[in-house]
Amino acid sequence: MKTRVAIFVLLIVALLVTACQPGAAGGGTIKIAILAPLSGPVPTFGVSTRDGALLAIEEANAKGGVLGKKIEAIVADSQCTPDPAVNAMNKVIEQDKVHYVVGEVCSKASIPISEIAEKNKVVMISPTSTNPTVTLNADGSTKKYVFRACFIDPFQGTVMAKFALSKGYKTAFILFDQGNDYVRGLAEFFEKAFTENGGQIVGKETYTAQDTDFSAILTKVAESKAEVLFVPDYYNIVNLVGAQAKEKGVTAVMMGGDGWDSADLDKNAANGGFFSNHYSPEDTRPIVQQWVANYQKKYNSVPDALATLGYDATNLLIAAIEKAGVDDPTKVAEAMEKLEYEAVSGKVTFDAQHNPIKSAVVLAVKDGKVSFAASVAP
Amino acid sequence: MNSSKAVPSTPSFLDFLVRRKILGLLLLILILLLVLWKLGSELVTNPTLFLQQVINGLQLGFVYALIALGYTMVYGIVRLINFAHGDVFMVGAFMSYYAIARVQLHTWPAKVFPNLSPGLSIGIGSITVILLSMAICALVAITIERVAYKPLRNAPRISALITAIGVSFFLEYFGALNFVFSPNFITYKRPFDVTTWMVSAQGVQALQKGQAIPEKTVIFSNISIIIVVVSILLLVVLQYIVGKTKIGKAMRAVAYDKQTARLMGINVDSVISVTFAIGAALAGAAGMLYAIAFPQVFFWMGIIPGLKAFVAAVLGGIGSIPGALVGALIMGQAEVLSAAYISTPMRDAIAFTILIIVLLVRPTGIFGEAQREKA
Amino acid sequence: MFKKIDRSSLLFLGGALAFFIVVQALISLNVLTAFWNTILRIGGVMAIVSIGLNLIYGFNGQFSLGQWGFYAIGAYSAADITYRWTNNASTDGLIVLLLIVLLVGTSILLLYRLLSRIRGLDALSAFTVYLLAAIGLSVASVQLGRVIAPPVNGLLQALPPDVATTIVFILAVLIGGLLAAEVSFLFGLPVLTLGSDYFGIATLGFTIIVKVLLDNSDTLLGFTEMKGARGMIGIPKVTSWFWVMFFLVLVLVITRNLIHSSTGRAIISVREDEIAAKAMGIDVGYFKTLTFVLGSLFAGLAGGLYAHVNGFLHPDTFNFIKSFDPMIIVVFGGLGSITGTVFASFAWALVLEGFLRLLLPSGFETWRFVVYPLLLLIMMLLKPNGLFGNFEMPYLRQILPPLRKKTSQPQSEGITVKEANV
């Protein structure tokens, strides 16, 4: 009985203490919250995004901050799942009183929190959520306060389809994760563009994110004699698919999207493949070189696509605050709409639905190296 | 009442339906026929492809068998669904990764005895790595048992299940911290290269890199062979330990009746520790072989294979060692064949439907002993 | 006419009312912000799911991992009804599901009467009969619903929009619960014949099958508004603290009255010893099915409430790994203790989502799920029988003896009270 009472009292006290904590009002600093999945099955994506965003904030602070104030970063774990993401968002808005949010990584977490951002008039920029509904209301109108820094699905899918056709490939096999809308979206638009422009999809198979054994579907790929194997997933799946494809005698050229961009991409497994990306590591623009060098210096690894987009999203947000000239989310959202910014992933402007307009490059994986293959304008 | 007049005619028909369990059987037979018809038509249209898929299923089945063996043994002796088994498996995979990629442990025979033939030296090196990860996993499991399960030996069984889930979460997320393992997906470095052989009417040939497979050829790799050999080896060893040795006898005694076993002078605590250690050692071996087959390690990798292996163990009759192998083989075929011929999105759903149907026909699994539980 | 209301009931209802008013006041005064509000509502929803599981597992002794699947069914069906109402101003979802629930429900009750007269009918055959009836009636309901829906549309649209939405919402939650209950009946009929752990795995399989279907709800099932793995948006956010408390108290009252009735005693006797219960003339199969269906009904209700908390549903929420959450809560609170379950649900939500978020220092965000299992482990080691053991608040207190402790009977491997395991 004693323990029960003790625990009960402890909980109530903890509730009162934490609930009544006065949220520190933004005095000398501007707060930016970073919502990323730091637990759950894909913390590696969250850690990359967070590191990229934190580096952007650190660099801005080194230059004297924004509007003469230092930027304070607040990191919250949103688990890539709707409920924890909602809690994390409510926490940073109400307890920490932030006006600007970078996040979330996954669309399924970004959609519910974008509604909270809209309701509380908090500017949110998602670095990597590709689902169109993140920036759109249920009735199709654009959410005023919500932006994204990544391509939406139609763009990359179409780019890769056209690239495959320009290389002379006529048949393609698509593998996609049924539970991941990023992968599904790319697959859908690849199929559409590929067939519309004279190609032929000889097969389509799905898997789930937890699958490790792809033997059954890869045997089908080998049997279909497709020239292109389109796997628009993250590098972890590509590594497994690539390694097993070689063992199953699949000769098709593998292709994919920006999810491939990582130092952990197994260059042997993906050898001979192509993927679309935001920038090429050979890009000579100083901002790219500087970004790669700084990231490497700080975290001792090569930045992946998620880190790059986290960095870009944060920089876009800071630039918008700078342009608005005042710490007011509504003004910042308006400034963001008209923003023109030279980011790592190219020159960015936003369209009417708050999606960035920027160009893409196609990279080739060959002999253990990733190199530039083609450039594609939006 | 009125209905009493009609009674004489109905019971005989109803009796017929009921006695023979006609309706239920009809449903099952219908499902079975549908599946057989589908598979049969595929077999006729493209026999080589079908055979290839069956081989794929066999490989996957033996991979599950490796994990299921440890699961089923621990369950058979201590009656605990050890959810942490999958995570011990993950620890085993990581240990072998570090041993190979960081320490290059698998090359020691080549360094010490440079005159050995390369095949033999890699073989001995790989066996060293596998033994190392088995030993570490056994240690981890003994620690877990002492800390999390032993204090609960007299508590309701479910309490231990919850601590098992707790341990499982802890191993995953503690492993995901940067200074422990890593939150990243890490490409596993295989200690040896994969060779794929093609079997056709012309004989056996090695598949060259980038070569397409000719018509009417089935392929298999050296990894499949290693996995099959190791699983069968471990099965035999396990059967021997449980069936023929003194500690095995003690285990069976403990499984049957703990109190009486204690009265007979058996040290129940140490027997249970040994059981966990053996189970974990099997998980360690499975972890390394799994990582060789699917070359990627990361902190979450144990959950799904652990679950599938557990289901396989249940399918075969949990507690039965040959049952684990048979159950795993069925699971492997069910997954691969349903992915190949029925519907890839429904792959897991089909595997579980099969499980449920098998359980309805054989309530304690294929090799399960008749109810040792409360009916 | 009026029965005297005993003191414990008054205390309970008064206490619940007071708790509701205090929290509601704090919410209105904005002391408890949306952050705490959401966590408390989730806590309440989890309490309803977990009470259902406690009935199945704690009181009836069936090791079920299928609770999460029924929760998903309740959530998606309720969400579909309100989605169609708010976005298309159409009641076809409501009417069709209502018809399905009513017709299938009636047919199950009728068939049960008929079939229970047949002695020795095996579960699988009975299942086949029910399945055929359910499929036939569902098809009929869809056709019938198309005819009935338009006039009902007009009727509801004549009401003020808020009232109409609330009516649709309440009906949606109830229908979600009933649908989950009916599915659980169909599924439970054959599966409940399995032994404890085998039953657990079969129900886990059910959860996984439901998740796979939801992942493909737009392609395989044909519900385009559910958007499969893209997540369902556009659900009205109408679950307030009031509705959570309302349904929680309702579920508590039902549970209490059930447990205190002769039915409840029969349910508990099945847990204690099935063979003895059978010998006493208790229809074990009937009571197992009854508890399973009732527990799933609660899960479905909770699902309907959950769907309207954040207004967003994604199949990943119904992942099997999360299906252990209610199990953790039930064991943590104490098996067979409803008080413990309610307390543990709120504590679980507050600690995991609330305190661990606020109290972990910055830079240690990744440690949340390292601390959580550690807390769980420590609590289980300190209190192996759960926080509340067999304790009940006066209103819910059992007249029957608590869980029996068996120490050495190798033949009895039932699930609740074990010989020294592990």
From TrEMBL, chain C:
CDD domains found in the cross-reference section: TM_PBP1_LivM_like
State which residue ranges cross the membrane. Answer: 35-56, 92-112, 124-144, 164-189, 196-214, 240-259, 286-307, 327-352, 364-382
One function term, GO molecular function aspect: branched-chain amino acid transmembrane transporter activity
Predominant localisation class: membrane
One CC-aspect GO term: plasma membrane
Pfam families per the UniProt record, alphabetical:
BPD_transp_2
Localisation per UniProt entry: Cell membrane
Membrane topology field:
Multi-pass membrane protein
Q: Keywords, A to Z?
A: Cell membrane, Membrane, Transmembrane, Transmembrane helix
Give the protein name, as stated in the record.
Answer: Branched-chain amino acid ABC transporter permease
